[in-house]
Amino acid sequence: MSEVTPERNLEGKKVAFLLTDGVEQIELTSPWNAVMSAGGRPVLVAPKGGHVQGFAGTDKSEIFAVDLTLDYADPSDFDALVIPGGVVNADHLRVDKRAQAFTKAFFEQHKPVASICHGPWLLIDAGVAKGRKLTSYHTLQTDLRNAGAEWTNAEVVVDNGLVTSRSPRDLPAFNAKLLEEITEGRHAEQTT
Fold this sequence. Notes:
Layout lengths: L13 E5 L4 E2 H13 L3 E6 L4 E6 L2 E7 L2 E2 L10 E4 L3 H8 L2 H12 L4 E4 L4 H5 L7 E2 L6 H6 L3 E2 L4 E4 L2 E4 L5 H14 L8
Parallel strand pairs: 1-3, 1-7, 2-4, 3-6, 7-8, 8-12, 9-10
Antiparallel strand pairs: 4-5, 11-12
């Protein structure tokens, strides 16, 4: 993990990680650890309380304790949002009206949002993908283009506070840009 520098100091920053059962474990734990290592406070937000089941590909892996449910999570209390991937995770979140509203609020408040792999599915249903430059797992490109996004096959894409990457192999670049965008703070162009 990289050391904390002025460009990557998240001291006092609270970061929501929005996920549910079926999350791709490494897409949760890698950025989570990056946020913690930079002095930030990650918070696991989920549709239901208790625990969520992580996956490594199609195999069950660890379970993670939920810190806060969507019923009680207020986007105003956070400095940024991270949406990990995982097919099942993303598919369940994208149809959850509370997850859509929570996500959209970060854009309305001009706060950094980072999403990897299948996570950008939620951006479509939250109504925030149109006109944005982004990337994702390659199977989502048609969905994102149909939603009005400009999709590109790149390791990481940053568009005015929105950070996206394709897959776990892109996590080093994803984490670096995530920390950079959170350190920069609000982005006036980060909006719906």
